[in-house]
Amino acid sequence: MASEEDEHIIEVTNSSEDAHYFVAFDPLDGSSNIDANISIGTIWCIFRRHSHHSEPINQKDIFQKEIISAGYCIYGSST
Questions:
Q1: Structural domain count of the chain
Q2: DSSP H or E stretch at residue 75
């Protein structure tokens, strides 16, 4: 996983052989709007992993155009 909130890649796997996808997300998009009571949300995007499963995630996994799934969940700041 990659997050705007974290400087480094977060590896989350039970088995590296099963790591076929890579997720990038912004867990709290619009966080500067919380004090103004304006809607905020979470953005995510799922990519197919191109590097070999035994290798660490690299730039060809992160910077690509092939999106498997993406979404945005919008909610109020009190949520």
A1: 1
A2: strand 67-75
